[in-house]
Amino acid sequence: MGNFERYLSLWVALAIILGITSGTLLPGLFEFVASLTYAHVNLVVAVFIWAMIYPMMVQVDFTAIKNVGRKPQGLALTLVVNWLIKPFTMAALGWLFFKVLFADLVDPTTATEYIAGMILLGVAPCTAMVFVWSQLTRGDSGYTLVQVSVNDIIMIFAFAPIAAFLLGLSSITVPWETLVLSVLLYVVAPLIAGILTRKWLLRDGQQRLDHWLQRSKPTTIMGLLATVVLLFGLQADRILDNPYAIGLIAVPLLIQSYGIFFIAYFAARKMKLPHNVAAPAGLIGTSNFFELAVAVAISLFGLTSGAALATVVGVLVEVPVMLSLVAFANRTRHWFPSASAT
């Protein structure tokens, strides 16, 4: 993990400041960018999101799925946490905080949008960033590939139905066409492009693929930061009028992140999984595919919506949370049997 990636939280914070400042000084520019839409998809944001997602998809080796039976308990734990626990606890926490605990602090319409953004984060388990967290905990890289590959395949089919179900429970009218289009645009299309690119690069050997992935890292980070600048620029007036909104959104997101990790991590301990499987299993459920969540929030609710703001706050809190959990996982390695013992 390079110094630039290590201080991602700082760059995101600076991007937020730049976005708010630019949005205040140049509101006309951001209004023009917001008008560049086609079929409810903002074209500028689509370019930024693709810049983030496409290199990530090239990293995923779907041939690793053939090894899925090697350690089925860890994969089963990951799938249960990601698809049967995480989306529903995120929705429940969103409702608890913004419909009950923070009800007097946020107007009902905005509260509903915040909940929607949280739900979209909860239904999008992490993909490529898990490789970083797994590496920092000395996780089994091959098994992490299996977890990511299976999750991406499930996401293609499960993201839209689960998101629609939970958004419906939150009394939000779900435009299915936009939701499905977002999944096709931000999951299926870059996934296919990633598979084809990976196959093309591997024709000249693993070294060329590794070189390409290394050179593409700045593209992913710059796409993320450009998206943050744009979103906060569009939200500038709203944030300045209500600066504590970011703090309010961060509270349930932090509770969800730590809660999901400890559910998965302690379940892995009870299952006596080796640490190099248990740590990635806990981290993959904790981290979010925030690029997808941001893109869908924009498509469904608009660039200046509370849902878009909630997903961007998810970006802000994720990196420091994940680094703290990596440190915890490394300090508790002795709780688990070694890989050789299993």
Topology:
Blueprint: H1 3-6, H2 8-25, H3 27-35, E1 37-38, E2 41-42, H4 43-59, H5 72-101, H6 108-122, H7 129-136, H8 141-169, H9 176-202, H10 206-234, H11 236-241, H12 245-270, H13 275-286, H14 290-301, H15 306-331
Antiparallel strand pairs: 1-2
Helix pairs in contact: 2-3, 2-10, 2-15, 4-9, 4-10, 4-14, 5-6, 5-8, 5-12, 5-13, 6-14, 6-15, 7-8, 8-9, 8-13, 9-14, 12-13, 12-15, 13-15, 14-15
Architecture overview:
By secondary structure, the chain is mainly alpha-helical. The protein has 15 helices and two strands. The chain is globular, with a radius of gyration of 19 Å. Helix 12 runs antiparallel to helix 13 and helix 14 packs antiparallel against helix 15. The mean pLDDT is 82. The chain starts with a helix and ends in an 11-residue tail after the last helix. Strands 1-2 form a two-stranded antiparallel ribbon.
Please compute the radius of gyration using only Cα atoms: 19 Å
Q: End-to-end distance, in Å?
A: 29 Å
- Unreliable sequence segments: none
* Tertiary shape: globular
**Strand and helix order:** HHHEEHHHHHHHHHHHH
Strand content: under 5%
**Main β sheet profile:** 2 strands, antiparallel
Number of strands: 2
Overall residue-averaged pLDDT value? 82
Q: Please tally the helical runs, counting DSSP H or I stretches of 4 or more residues.
A: 15
